[in-house]
Amino acid sequence: MKYILTMLLCAGILVHMQAQDSTKQSMKDILDSKHFEFEPISMTSAHGKFRHVDGGYFLLINGDTLKTYLPYTGRAYNASFGSSEAGFDFTSTDYTYSVSEGKKKKYTVEAKIKDRMYNAEFTLTVYDDGTAYLRAYSSDREAVSYNGSVKMK
Description:
alpha+beta
C-alpha cells in the first residue's frame, strides 16, 4: 500500500513539473509566434503619476502587424494642433521585433516602429505566468509604462 501511494505521489510531482515546463515553453512559443495581445491594467507616467486603466486598451502583435491603442499622460514635445493622437493609437507593418530570454523566467520583447513620423519603441517584459510590464518610448513625448498581462491571440 505504501509503495502504491509513493508511486502515485512521485507521478503527481512529475506531472506537475512537466506542466510547469510546458507553461514556460508555451509563453516562449507565444512570443516567438508574434500572435499575442498585451492588456494594461495600470499605467505610470515618467513623473510617477499612477493611474488605473479601464478595459479596451491594448498592444496587439499579429504576425507582421503591430496595432496599439494605449492611453498616455505626460509631456509631449511636439503636438499637432487639433490632433486626435493623444495616446499611442496606430497600426504599423514596418517594425523590428526581437525576443530574448532573461533570468528569473522572464522574456523581453522589443518592437521598434519605423513607419511613423516620430519614432516609437516598445519594450515588453513578460513573465511565465503572463504578467507583463510595458515601457513605451517615443521621440515626441516622455516615456510611459504599463502593467498588465499577455495572452495568446
